[in-house]
From TrEMBL:
UniProt-listed Gene3D superfamilies: Alkaline Phosphatase, subunit A
InterPro entries: Alkaline_phosphatase_core_sf, STM4013-like, Sulfatase, Sulfatase_N
Protein name according to UniProt: Sulfatase N-terminal domain-containing protein
Short name of any one Pfam family annotated for the protein: Sulfatase
This protein's record includes keyword Hydrolase: yes
């Protein structure tokens, strides 16, 4: 992962955190190599990383406190490259070079104290505010949004999420910076309906879902560059998933297909006035 100095980002740019929920590393690099995810490819290669948890709930608790997926080859916690440093947790006496040191229990709380508006556009059921557990992550943000059309079982879920965001950013004031978290759940199960003729989920339908998502992210990025100023984007998976490897199914278990995830970060440069 390229070295990033968050001191040149926080307070100066919007921050987009896009989680491609359940995306497998092997499928991500397969589609990258085939050039079928041209939007994401245009912003650099995927980095092979360790997942912070083996399903959505633990992974997001880790990520929202600054512990993003870390390089696959690191052997020591001290070798993590932290973009966000939680000062209250006592990891080190000194803030790592280039990290954003935040106070409070989450990145969003720290950024809000530094003048950001914090938004969440949810996807999977852990963001569905109709349940008590679905209110936990949503409660970390000043503004959180979820409706059934964003859910996993809806084939157009990512389009619906992007449409929702675009309606709001077109008229949003640039006076305050925005931290937007987007949970993209199209790649999560079920995803068989993205592959013509498929009756069940598979690595092939998982890949087809990623290709669909790539096109929708293109719409989001183009609009962001048109309506907003420069932005820093974090794009990653929270965990992978299994489709029968070693007899394993889905996630919430430790398996290389679950524990290995793709990660990248990059800039969106505004098109200007």
């Amino acid at each position: 992962m390229p070295a990033i100095d968050m001191r040149n980002i926080v307070g100066k740019m919007d921050i987009l955190f896009i989680c491609l929920d359940a995306l497998r590393y092997d499928v991500a690099i397969q589609e990258e190599a085939a050039d079928t995810t041209r939007v994401l490819n245009s912003y650099g290669k995927w980095e092979k990383c360790q997942a912070p948890g083996n399903f959505t709930y633990p992974s997001h608790h880790a990520m929202f406190t600054g512990f993003l997926p870390c390089r696959y080859d690191i052997k020591n916690q001290a070798d993590r490259e932290l973009l966000f440093y939680p000062t209250a947790i006592g990891l080190r006496r000194k803030v790592p070079e280039g990290a954003y040191a935040f106070s409070g229990s989450t990145i969003m709380e720290g950024l809000a104290k530094d003048g950001y508006d914090t938004w969440c556009v949810g996807g999977v059921s852990f963001f569905d505010k109709r349940s008590d557990i679905g209110k936990v992550f949503s409660g970390y943000f000043q503004n959180s949004f979820w409706n059934p059309s964003f859910g996993c079982a809806v084939k157009e879920s990512t389009k619906n999420q992007v449409d929702f965001i675009l309606k709001r950013i077109a008229s949003l004031s640039k006076d305050r910076k925005l931290f937007l978290y987007l949970n993209v759940d199209a790649i999560h199960y079920p995803n068989y309906f993205y592959l013509d003729g498929a009756a069940h989920d598979s690595p092939e339908s998982h890949a087809a879902a990623l290709r669909y998502v790539d096109g929708q992210l293109g719409r989001l990025f183009d609009a962001w560059k048109a309506y907003r100023e420069n932005a820093f984007v974090i794009c990653c998976s929270d965990h992978g998933t299994c489709y029968g490897e070693d007899g394993c199914q889905l996630h919430g278990i430790n398996h290389p297909m679950v524990d290995t995830v793709p990660y990248k970060h990059f800039y969106l440069v505004s098109a200007g006035p």
